Amino acid sequence: MVTIKDIADRAGVSAATVSRVLNGDPTLSVGDVKRKLIIETAESLNYQTPRNRLGKRLGAIAIVHFLDPAEELGDPYYVGLRLGIERRCKEQRINAVTVRRDQIGDQNSPGPSVRAAIAIAAEPSDDSSWMAPFGQNIVFADCTAPNRKFDTVETNLRDAMRETLTCLDSNGAKRIAFVGLGKELNSEHRDEVRYAAYCEWMREANRFDASMCKVSNDGGDRHWERLGYGLTVDLLDNVVQPDAIVAFNDGMAVGVYRALQETGRSIPQDVSVVSFNDVSVAQFLTPPLSTVRIPVETIGETAVDLLVERLRGRRVTKHVTLETDIVWRESSRRSTGL
Question: What is the pLDDT along the chain (338 residues), one digit of tens a residue?
């Protein structure tokens, strides 16, 4: 293996100079001719940087995607997640191979050189046989792992919901409704975390009203706009009307907007609307949507980092939780100054 000292000896400079040139040190004072000589010498010797060598040692990883292409394109959140994974893999010189759930077990499955995997949109009810070739070298990126022995990356949606409700309340909203999922997708037992946090906050404030909480346990088709529209139409049939609505995600919020506008209600004069994800469409709605920004690409990048640690020999399981930010826009009353 070629070393920095080999390059230094061939170019007639110090090893420290070679290291600083190859690492792009902007403080190094060296002439263009010498800099070019060092770079060309390194290339002629086929020098591999530690990062390049790392990628070759790790081989390829599989992105095991439990959404089909149409489902992914219909939910920009998952597009951003995959792009974050692919970008970090590119930085680490790791080849990423995307495998869809309907390809698992057939001739398109990862080959023996693929030693690790990142799961996207996996659910507890999914067949876990795909996991066998990877052992512990699997990271679940913002989805449910079958047990706590696997690395996971998630966001703190519970506290994000509680902060959202507190801010709405402090700005005058007293009849805050929730529109979304009541259970985790494909789970009859676990409440969805945003829904659970909403109920928790409302009960603590002695303001829980089941009629203000419109949820579905059938979000499997991921037609978020249609689902949000239908739930909001149901909500607006209540005797008690909401003065704020928190939606499960931005796709549902689009449906909330349509239902409110069709019934002659103004946003935010009559009803404030806040959502989750902050996908690109949020800022272009009329009015622009207040939403909890989830660092989706950072989730993907962190999943790759955890996988690299596993492949380097880490044995202790990690569960990483990332924080969120609320982006206040014109869809919520008196949002400035929150």
Answer: 678 888 889 888 888 888 887 776 667 777 878 877 887 888 788 776 555 544 445 568 889 888 877 777 778 888 899 999 999 988 888 888 888 766 655 545 555 567 789 999 887 666 677 888 888 899 999 988 888 999 999 999 999 999 999 999 999 999 999 999 998 765 556 789 999 999 999 999 999 999 999 999 865 567 899 999 999 999 999 999 999 999 999 999 999 999 999 999 999 999 999 999 999 889 999 999 999 999 999 999 999 999 999 888 888 999 999 999 999 999 998 644 44
Instruction: Report d(CA 231, CA 249) in Å as an integer.
Output: 13
Helix (H) or strand (E) holding 155: strand 151-155
Q: What are phi and psi of 17, to 5 degrees?
A: -65, -45
**pTM passes above 0.90:** no
